[in-house]
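Practice record 12: protein with magnesium ion.
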Amino acid sequence: MLRKSVADLAPSDLDGRRVLIRVDYNVPLAADGSVSDLTRVRATLPTLRYVMKNGGRPVLLSHLGRPKGEVVPSMSLAPVAPVLAEELGAPVRFVPSTDTDDAVRASTELQPGQVLLLENTRFLPGETTNDPAVAERFARLGDVFINDAFGSTHRAHASVVGVADHVRPAVAGFLVQRELEALGGLRSGGKRPFVVILGGAKIGDKIGLLETFLGTADRILIGGAMANTFLSAMGASTGQSLVERDAVALAGRFLAMGGDTLVLPTDLVVADPGAPDSAGAVVVAADSVPQDLAALDIGPESREAFSAIVRGAKTVFWNGPMGLFEKPGFDAGTASVARATAECTAAGAFTVIGGGDSAAAIRQAGLSDAVSHVSTGGGASLEFLAQGSLPGIEALDPA
Ligand code: ADP
Ligand code: MG
């Protein structure tokens, strides 16, 4: 699994050379087409600055959205060029293609101190199928390859995997390296007690995580809609709660395997699922959700119990909100777990948040900087924790 990183490159690998960097600029765009959140752009600055400081000329490839192999003007990367220039304090040229002679010419004309940003890789049908011909054309754009797109590293796409067959050295950027260090530490267990918090909507996406952590975690706290499926497997009345029917039997097997490791909520906040309004919300025992209501958050007793366990942890991994945290009135469970995670971080624990909605939840609680690491990759971080590696990592030079 160990791979070379940009810090392992020799000065001659960078000085004066075209450095092809796969970044993840899959940024949200506002109605007027401007970039509405700069997190992903900022996350790439350490690698860009390092490459430029060492005389490298960065050529950037990224996808944005799901244009499905066609040119979709609303998914152009053009709006990213001015904001990147501003953040980096260097000129950024944008060329509206990736696999053309124009793009190659722009890469060779690029001067030290300048950056070239190319168009959305997914405008080409061969990107997501990892077409070797497309990968070869991407490879013409650089003399060295760096993958700094952690959020795309679980995808075997031409700009992530195939391109590394044709450009050497091929190494991990600082963002990818930081992610691998944080998540790799969790895979190997870390300091105990090791507490995992799982929530969110779909068990289907998280079976691998449960399997990984049942062997290593001291406690796995289960909240959010995921808890409903487990409660259903225990024979509870779940009313109108979101329950994943196909996964109830599996949840039952995890319960049998997990013993005391699995911790479920003992009370729940329930409301009318048609018009979830915190004014009409009530707290009920976890096994008796009324027929016409749905569980939308963990209750106060569970909040306390979960927070106490988290506060005692030395290592925490959290994926999946404890409730419908986007709605005021159903965010208390998520907010308490966020606070408890921040508190144990302050007391010296190593704490990692994974998953897109979970990252949004910790941001909403204003505590992103109070935990050890917030992963930038939703699916990628979960897949890495379940599998121990990712296609885009395997494609890089061994350390
Ligand atoms: P992540 O992106 O962090 O992996 P998920 O995508 O699995 O998390 O789940 C997040 C979603 O789950 C949120 O939109 C949240 O509102 C929803 N959710 C959590 N608990 C419940 C619940 N009890 N009922 C309905 N939706 C829920
Ligand atoms: Mg999500």
